[in-house]
């Protein structure tokens, strides 16, 4: 899938939006789908992706916590500080704002010398999750940053993950694609024989 053909979602000003409070007894969730591909994004930033009923990333077994899912972090190479693009595990909740739109979720963060915006949406026509990260250097000196995406891949039907959460993850394999700068994840079928 070529990401140049995906449709970006923009705020036209006519769609409804809701600011999600960060300190609540239970998590708030936004569900975004195009019919085949869907994501569930929590107010803390954890997200789970599903394609035709198959959980691509590990879903949260406990809906009150956000211990599993997909997260993004930034590391300042000079100061060695790590910053989260979402409020999950952040030291200061007041530095973040979460906006739930009809077709996307935005996380706005303010860190020393850096403002961040993470927008998460689903392409309306393709089975693609779009994550757009905007960084704004508010300081006087250039920044050298590393952007890291963390996700625990599942590739199993959601019901199986809930019944056997640890066993199902033993069957996922990964291979690097050196020419495409990517990683491909796959699950071996039980009927496949391992080569020796």
The low-confidence runs, each spanning 5 or more residues with pLDDT under 50, are 1-9
What's the Cα radius of gyration? 18 Å
Mean pLDDT: 79
Give the structural class. mainly beta
Tally of separate helices: 1
- N-end to C-end Cα span: 33 Å
Largest sheet descriptor: 5 strands, antiparallel
Spatial strand sequence of the major β-sheet? 1-8-9-10-11
Which descriptor suits the 3D outline?
A: globular
Number of strands: 15
Q: What percent of residues are in strands?
A: over 45%
Helices and strands, in order, run as EEEEEEEEEEEEEHEE
What is the share of helical residues? under 10%
Please provide a written account of the structure.
By secondary structure, the protein is mainly β. The chain is built from one helix and 15 strands; from the N terminus they run E-E-E-E-E-E-E-E-E-E-E-E-E-H-E-E. It has a five-stranded antiparallel sheet with strand order 1-8-9-10-11, with no helix packed on it. The N terminus is likely disordered.
Task: Name a few traits of the molecule.
five-stranded antiparallel sheet
Please outline the helices and strands.
Layout: E1 17-20, E2 29-33, E3 37-42, E4 47-51, E5 54-57, E6 70-76, E7 82-84, E8 96-101, E9 104-111, E10 114-122, E11 129-137, E12 145-151, E13 153-157, H1 158-163, E14 172-177, E15 182-187
Antiparallel strand pairs: 1-8, 2-3, 3-4, 4-5, 5-13, 6-7, 6-12, 8-9, 9-10, 10-11, 14-15
Give a nutshell description of this structure:
This protein is mainly beta and 196 residues long.
